[in-house]
Amino acid sequence: xxxxxxxxxxxxxxxxxxxxxxxxxxxxxxxxxxxxxxxxxxxxxxxxxxxxxxxxxxxxxxxxxxxxxxxxxxxxxxxxxxxxxxxxxxxxxxxxxxxxxxxxxxxxxxxxxxxxxxxxxxxxxxxxxxxxxxxxxxxxxxxxxxxxxxxxxxxxxxxxxxxxxxxxxxxxxxxxxxxxxxxxxxxxxxxxxxxxxxxxxxxxxxxxxxxxxxxxxxxxxxxxxxxxxxxxxxxxxxxxxxxxxxxxxxxxxxxxxxxxxxxxxxxxxxxxxxxxxxxxxxxxxxxxxxxxxxxxxxxxxxxxxxxxxxxxxxxxxxxxxxxxxxxxxxxxxxxxx
Length: 337
Prior knowledge:
The protein is mainly alpha-helical.
């Protein structure tokens, strides 16, 4: 039983990290495309951007729902405490999702699309901003008592470092959205997003450098973790790999390759998640409550693993099937021009 109490929380930590990664990767380019739609110069371009998402965007958010449900079942203490600490960022994110969903559907039926176009772009930006503030607050740490219950203030999530994390996350979403559009579009629109991808790559790199440098300076818990043996060697390699991946991304954009920039961007997201996971683990409520302290009963964790073991292959197959079916380019003819 002691082995299960030690092993099962680790399994669920990995599963939840997997759900979160798939959400950020898949819905990330949705949000990025939505943010980029705010800069589109005419209705035809904006229509092409939204058409590129029309058959896939709603399924991408399923992974966030699975992560929320998994967190509630596997780590109920963390679920209650984190929601309590991050009410405002989470509600900001939810309102952004509402605006996006309503705007996406109503725009197709509206003769005057300006309002719904803005609502879709603004909703995408708002959802990304809420996620960035939530991530920044978790990295900063959540104030809890000895039982793991939140004892901080309503605005603990808002700080200069969390603003930096939020802006960097938005740039990351713009980057993956731009590389997705490079893959899915042609002609002048594709050329435009080669440029936006290059700009977003540089701004994301600058933000990542600031976060990497300031995190161990500002947060004692992160500083202690970063300089532990042997993790110090891993954390030394991650920034080097990140710069190399950015360089490969920029080179592929300069060569005007279509699919490679999207692949390099995904690898950047993978590397970022590995770094964040190593910093946070084994805490589920940084920097005090571990996954072992917050985990549900082992029998519950086993039952949930059996259920999720059937669900994950179905979800992965569904997502993969969608992308295979709708893998072609989106053009003005696709939009009905």
